[in-house]
Amino acid sequence: MSLTRNITATFFVFFLVNLSFFTSPSSSATDTFIYGGCSQLKFPPGSPYEMKLNSILASVVNSAMLTTYNNFTVPGSSGTADTLYGVFQCRGDLSGNDCAQCVARAISQLGTLCLDACGGALQLDGCFVKYDNATFLGVEDKTVVMKKCGPSIGYDSEGLTRRDAVLAYLGTSDGSSRPFRVSGAGNVQGVAQCVGDLSPSECQDCLSDAVGQLRAGCGTSTWGDLFLAKCYARYSEGGYHSQGHDHNDDDDDDDLDRTLAILIGIIAAVALLVVFLSYFRKYLCGDECGDEKGGK
Ligand SMILES: *[C@@H]1O[C@H](CO)[C@@H](O)[C@H](O)[C@H]1NC(C)=O
Ligand SMILES: *[C@@H]1O[C@H](CO)[C@@H](O)[C@H](O)[C@H]1NC(C)=O
């Protein structure tokens, strides 16, 4: 009896979860994939390393509800060789729920992209997640990880002036610590972000570098993205979110998610119906029905 009740409760929760999944609006803008990479080194499945990694990733998801940046260290048993480090950084304008959702999505993608890899890093539009057993926390790293430029607008001096004004704001220190910067001039918008483990001066140095390379590399393009290992700068003409690249993958994913949700919902509904009918039948015939006792 209590088993049946547990099963009913389980399916009911399951059903509710799927219902809410249905009605929640998709936040595909923050889920857009930017880049991902894994270390060559692999850990053996089922090893203590895997357990530590899972505990770090769980901490990351929980923490993302409360803050836009955090770091984690799980010390190794035998010195520093198997110490594991993890970090996440959400875009500075994301609230708890959106940040947590983005980070959960990034971790699920890391799970497929970096299966059994000792280290992995993944950047979505709205968040960055990285883990490794080599120290990277608090280390400024200006390696170029991703660089993309949109189509050239040709030489349009007004457009270029606005673009340069936006980039200048993103790359220049005003004396305060600003790890997240947004800027706009006319129809040109820009955004820049450091990972929170950099000091204000390291962040400023990283952003100056990113902005300089973006200006030099994307010349007269309508949009440009430059991601260094610990900071990035991006600009776009006609709205930051309407760049129109990499959106198809996302729609496919959403369709798949929706199909899966419908399937699971139907299975849960049928299961609920079966449980309900068995209660109903028992209620109708009380103790008369033989097959409950018959087997025992
Ligand atoms: C990371 O872990 C792997 C596998 O256990 C090990 O071979 C490697 O030396 C470790 N790297 C560091 C920097 O500790
Ligand atoms: C890591 O997080 C702790 C608090 O959780 C903080 O005190 C420390 O400064 C952080 N380290 C870096 C490098 O950000």
Task: Please render the helix and strand layout as text.
Blueprint: H1 2-23, H2 28-31, E1 33-38, H3 48-64, E2 69-74, E3 84-90, H4 96-113, E4 120-124, E5 127-132, E6 144-149, H5 157-171, E7 180-185, E8 188-194, H6 200-217, E9 223-228, E10 231-237, H7 248-285, H8 291-294
Antiparallel strand pairs: 1-4, 2-3, 3-5, 4-5, 6-9, 7-8, 8-10, 9-10
What does it look like?
- The two termini are 15 Å apart.
- α5 packs antiparallel against α6 (200-217).
- β7 (180-185) and β8 (188-194) form a beta hairpin.
- With 296 residues, this protein is an alpha+beta fold.
- Helices cover 46% and strands 21% of the residues.
- The protein has helices at 2-23, 28-31, 48-64, 96-113, 157-171, 200-217, 248-285, 291-294, and strands at residues 33-38, 69-74, 84-90, 120-124, 127-132, 144-149, 180-185, 188-194, 223-228, 231-237.
- The chain is built from eight helices and ten strands.
- The model is unreliable at 1-27, 240-254 and 289-296 (pLDDT under 50).
- The chain has three domains: 1-27 and 255-296; 32-137, 2-Layer Sandwich (Killer Toxin P4, Chain A); 144-243, Gnk2 domain, C-X8-C-X2-C motif (Killer Toxin P4, Chain A), CATH 3.30.430.
- The protein has a five-stranded antiparallel sheet with strand order 1-4-5-3-2, with helices on one face. Strands 6-9-10-8-7 form a five-stranded antiparallel sheet, with helices on one face.
- The radius of gyration is 25 Å and the shape is globular.
- The structure holds 2-acetamido-2-deoxy-beta-D-glucopyranose (2 copies).
- The site of one 2-acetamido-2-deoxy-beta-D-glucopyranose has 8 residues, from loops.
- It is a single-pass type I membrane protein.
- This is Putative Gnk2-like domain-containing protein.
- InterPro entries: Cell2Cell_Antifungal (IPR051378), GNK2 (IPR002902), GNK2_sf (IPR038408).
